[in-house]
């Protein structure tokens, strides 16, 4: 139709004129509709032919776009990732990691939703997100509903920079006996482990401030009002905050006896995540492992 004649179309397609004519006739037969009005040797396109041309051009363009997008997805530079995260990582650690990870990947979109550990496990069980980041739950009975990688490390102690205990190389419950402390809620596994460590040394775990997660508690540490035993991920998040001079009022020391903190990375079992999400997951998991393995 764009060529204006069968002979020009045949020449443009490097085919014979009878072959082009036969192809058109075959197309009309397969669609069971007349596309061209034949006037002697001339073929005049009908409105149906113009409609088919418009649709065909759009379909071919969509096919080209789809092929390009799939190539970008294959190369892990285009796609979207949905992440459900507990409050700690979602506030500083995860955005900081993502901003660096996406430096040369402008076509990857990431959505982060902040939820409690219980809600994250429920969302992952319903196959709603590509990845979940939450506290490890030793008692959970839903582990068969999603894939789970558990990462553990020893807790550390956060102290005001001018606190007398900042001179100690290792902090113990005995050092912290009756000291004002900040803690997350007592029903969390890590708090039960901390309480057990204090009980073992007959030290008083004097909780003055209680919050949902560790990072905000470090403001009380910076103000000289409390000490906090916490995980290394929260400590790294605060270190990112400490890039601002006003925040450099907290120091971290090893805590003994060894008190375990665990976190989990969850992925759906029934939903196959994209190659873009798989690569991100691999790098994030390694990043978390490196942080948890770092000495204080």
Overview features:
single chain, 296 residues, alpha/beta, Arc Repressor Mutant, subunit A, D-Maltodextrin-Binding Protein, domain 2, five-stranded mixed beta sheet, 10 helices, rod-shaped
CATH architecture descriptor text of the largest domain: 3-Layer(aba) Sandwich
- Main sheet attributes: strand count, strand direction, barrel closure: 5 strands, mixed
CATH topology annotation of the largest domain: D-Maltodextrin-Binding Protein, domain 2
Number of domains: 3
Largest sheet: spatial strand order: 4-3-5-12-6
Helix percent reads 40-55%
- Our measurement of the CA-to-CA distance between the termini, rounded to an integer number of angstroms, reads 74 Å
Q: pLDDT average, as an integer?
A: 88
Inertia-based shape: rod-shaped
**Structural class designation:** alpha/beta
Radius of gyration from the alpha-carbon trace, in angstroms: 31 Å
Describe the structure.
This protein is of the alpha/beta class and 296 residues long. It has three domains: 6-74, Orthogonal Bundle (Arc Repressor Mutant, subunit A); 81-148 and 265-293, Periplasmic binding protein-like II (D-Maltodextrin-Binding Protein, domain 2, 3-Layer(aba) Sandwich), CATH 3.40.190.10; 156-258, Periplasmic binding protein-like II (D-Maltodextrin-Binding Protein, domain 2), CATH 3.40.190.10. It is 42% helix and 24% strand. It has helices at residues 6-12, 17-31, 47-74, 87-91, 93-101, 117-125, 189-200, 214-222, 232-241, 275-293; strands at residues 36-39, 42-45, 78-85, 107-114, 131-135, 146-154, 156-160, 181-184, 207-211, 227-230, 250-254, 260-268. The strands form three sheets. It has a five-stranded mixed β-sheet, with helices on both faces. α1 crosses α2. The longest helix has 28 residues, at 47-74. The chain is rod-shaped. The mean pLDDT is 88.
């Amino acid at each position: 139709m764009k060529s204006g004649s069968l002979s020009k179309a045949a020449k443009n397609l490097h085919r014979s004129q009878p072959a082009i004519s036969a192809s058109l006739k075959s197309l009309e037969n397969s669609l069971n509709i007349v596309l061209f009005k034949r006037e002697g040797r001339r073929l005049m396109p009908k409105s149906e032919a113009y409609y088919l041309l418009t649709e065909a051009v759009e379909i071919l363009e969509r096919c080209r776009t789809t092929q390009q997008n799939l190539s970008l997805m294959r190369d892990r530079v285009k796609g979207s990732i949905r992440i459900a995260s507990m409050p700690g990582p979602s506030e500083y650690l995860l955005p900081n990691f993502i901003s660096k990870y996406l430096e040369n990947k402008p076509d990857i979109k990431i959505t982060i939703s902040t939820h409690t550990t219980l809600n994250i496990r429920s969302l992952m069980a319903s196959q709603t997100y590509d990845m979940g980041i939450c506290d490890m739950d030793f008692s959970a009975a839903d582990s068969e509903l999603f894939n789970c990688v558990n990462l553990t490390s020893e807790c550390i102690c956060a102290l005001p920079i001018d606190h007398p205990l900042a001179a100690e190389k290792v902090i113990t419950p005995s050092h912290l006996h009756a000291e004002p402390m900040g803690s997350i809620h007592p029903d969390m596994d890590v708090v039960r482990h901390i309480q057990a460590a204090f009980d073992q040394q007959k030290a008083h775990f004097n909780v003055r401030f209680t919050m949902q997660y560790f990072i905000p508690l470090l403001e009380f540490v910076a103000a000289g009002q409390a000490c906090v035993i916490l995980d290394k991920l929260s400590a790294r998040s605060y270190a990112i905050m400490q890039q601002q001079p006003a925040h450099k009022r907290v120091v971290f020391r090893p805590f003994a006896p060894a008190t375990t903190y665990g976190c989990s990375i969850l992925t759906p079992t029934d939903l196959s995540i994209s190659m873009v999400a798989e690569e991100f997951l691999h790098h994030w998991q390694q990043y978390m492992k490196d942080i948890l393995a770092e000495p204080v």
